[in-house]
Write a structure and sequence with these properties.
Helix content: 25-40%
Number of strands: 5
Strand content: 15-25%
Strand order of the largest sheet: 1-2-3-4-5
Number of helices: 4
Structural class: alpha+beta
Shape: globular
Radius of gyration: 24 Å
Order of helices and strands: HEHEEEEHH
Largest sheet: 5 strands, antiparallel
Length: 211
């Protein structure tokens, strides 16, 4: 009997320990997930407002969104959010999440801002695995190359030149690393195409009183 009692006590102790441990892991995962989500939101907001400065608009970019599905931009058919920048109630720019699938080391996650007139408001790379010292120059912290896309267009007679120099275009490539800038330029061009085709839906109706 004493042996069975000892076994029951041991089993109960192990069970309680497992339950407590599982609870602690669950709490840790939830708190970590919330912290990661908060950090991602802050990083996202920082990147968005680098493209469209906060003091140049009168709305909250993170709260003014429109859902869209664009496999050609994201590589999947899952809904994503486009962010709209307004001035006096009128949408002056839209920021689209974009994935360049043809980076040297895999996907390059970006956001591309497009002005109402169809020109580039700005581009920022959010995540990549490109080669340090070469392909990572797409990151504004490493190089100002990404700023060369500002105000550029790819419509009408400007389409063929919306490419890196090696492909007959107007954008510099990196010494020893052409694939990475080519991928970013190509993804930006696709974002401009998407905006032009879906302009009405992305801009949406202006707020009452806007011109």
């Amino acid at each position: 009997m004493e042996m069975f009692s000892a076994i029951r006590s041991s089993t109960l102790g192990i069970t309680i320990f497992a339950v407590v441990t599982a609870a602690l892991i669950a709490v840790t995962q939830v708190s970590t997930k919330d912290r990661i989500a908060k950090n991602e939101r802050e990083a996202q907001a920082k990147a968005l407002y680098e493209i469209v400065p906060k003091n140049s608009i009168d709305n909250d970019l993170l709260e003014d969104t429109v859902s869209f599905v664009a496999p050609e931009l994201l590589g999947n058919d899952q809904p994503a959010e486009a962010y709209r920048a307004r001035k006096d109630g009128k949408v002056v720019a839209v920021i689209l999440p974009v994935v360049a699938p043809d980076g040297y080391s895999g996907n390059i996650n970006m956001i591309v801002g497009v002005k109402r007139d169809g020109s580039v408001a700005g581009v920022r790379v959010l995540a990549h695995k490109e080669t340090p010292g070469l392909g990572d120059k797409i990151d504004l912290k490493k190089s100002d190359w990404i700023l060369s896309l500002n105000d550029q267009r790819n419509d009408n007679d400007q389409r063929d030149s919306f490419a890196v120099l090696k492909d007959g275009g107007r954008f510099d490539q990196f010494t020893g690393a052409t694939i990475t800038p080519r991928a970013v330029v190509g993804a930006t061009s696709r974002a401009l195409d998407y905006f032009r085709t879906n302009k009405a839906a992305l801009l949406g109706p202006a707020i009452a009183g806007a011109e």
